[in-house]
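for the recovery benchmark. C-alpha cells below, seq after
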C-alpha cells in the first residue's frame, strides 16, 4: 500500500470533507440465543442476515431453559428464540424483554424416533405399550422438567397413560439435539424429539407422530432483550420475520406463524 502525504495547503479541504461526509452505518455484532432445535435453520439464517445487513451474527445454541437462565444472570444476548412460551414468560415477568418486541414465530411437531431404519410405524394411542417396546433399553428425551422438548414429551406420555411405566427407562439429555444424538448413535433405540430434528439426521427414522392434543402447542416465540435495544437488534428481529428467514425455517420443516 502506498501512503500519500497531504501538503499543508490541502489540509483544510481534507478536514472539510471529514466534517461534511455522510455518516456510514456501523456494522455491529448481534448475539442471538436460540433453542437447540433451531441449529440447522440458524446456520442458514446467519449467512443470509450477515450478507444482507453487514452485521456479524453470533449464535448461541442450547436448551431454552439454559439460555433463559443465562439471560437472567446477565449474559449478553440481544435476541432470544425460545422453543416454548414458558421460558419467554419467565423473562418477561423479570422485566428482561424489550417492550413490544415479542412475537410468536414458529410451530413444530413432536415425533417418536427409532435407531432401526427398518422399524415399522407405531400408532401413538393410549393403548400402545411403549414400556414393552423399550424392554431393558432407554428412551432418549430432553430434560423433562426444564427443556421444552422434554416437557412436551412428558406431557404427551402422561396424556396417553404411558409416563408412569416409561419414566424409569428415560435417558435425559441437556437439549433435544442431545436426545437425537443418543438415538442416532444407537445408545438408545427410541427417542422423542421434534420433527425438524429428526429430519436432519439420517441415522434415525420417524416411526410415529404424537397427536397435537396430547401436549401443549409447540410454539417458538422470539423477543429482543431489554437493555440491548439498537439498530443491530432491530435488524435481526426484522430479518427473522422477513421472507428470507421464513423460507429458511420452512425448509427445515417448521410451520411459520403468519403475522
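predicted aa per position
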Amino acid at each position: 500500500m502506498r501512503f500519500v502525504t497531504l501538503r499543508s495547503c490541502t489540509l483544510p479541504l481534507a478536514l472539510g470533507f471529514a466534517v461534511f461526509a455522510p455518516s456510514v452505518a456501523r456494522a455491529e455484532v448481534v448475539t442471538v440465543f436460540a433453542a437447540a432445535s433451531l441449529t440447522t435453520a440458524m446456520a442458514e439464517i446467519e449467512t443470509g442476515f450477515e450478507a444482507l445487513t453487514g452485521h456479524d451474527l453470533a449464535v448461541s445454541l442450547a436448551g431454552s431453559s439454559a439460555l433463559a437462565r443465562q439471560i437472567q444472570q446477565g449474559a449478553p444476548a440481544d435476541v432470544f428464540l425460545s422453543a416454548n412460551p414458558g421460558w419467554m414468560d419467565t423473562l418477561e415477568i423479570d422485566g428482561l424483554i424489550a417492550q413490544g418486541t415479542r412475537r410468536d414465530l414458529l410451530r413444530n411437531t413432536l415425533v417418536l424416533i427409532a435407531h432401526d431404519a427398518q422399524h415399522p410405524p407405531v400408532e401413538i394411542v393410549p393403548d400402545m405399550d411403549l414400556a414393552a417396546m423399550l424392554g431393558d433399553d432407554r428412551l432418549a428425551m430432553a430434560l423433562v422438567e426444564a427443556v421444552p422438548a422434554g416437557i412436551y414429551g412428558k406431557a404427551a406420555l402422561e396424556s396417553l397413560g404411558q409416563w408412569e411405566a416409561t419414566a424409569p427407562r428415560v435417558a435425559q439429555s441437556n437439549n433435544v439435539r442431545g436426545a437425537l444424538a443418543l438415538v442416532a448413535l444407537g445408545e438408545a433405540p427410541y427417542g422423542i424429539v421434534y420433527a425438524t430434528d429428526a429430519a436432519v439426521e439420517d441415522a434415525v427414522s420417524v416411526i410415529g407422530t404424537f397427536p397435537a392434543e396430547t401436549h401443549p402447542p409447540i410454539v417458538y416465540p422470539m423477543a429482543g432483550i431489554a437493555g440491548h435495544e439498537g439498530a443491530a437488534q432491530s435488524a435481526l428481529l426484522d430479518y427473522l420475520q422477513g421472507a428470507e428467514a421464513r423460507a429458511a425455517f420452512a425448509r427445515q420443516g417448521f410451520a411459520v406463524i403468519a403475522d
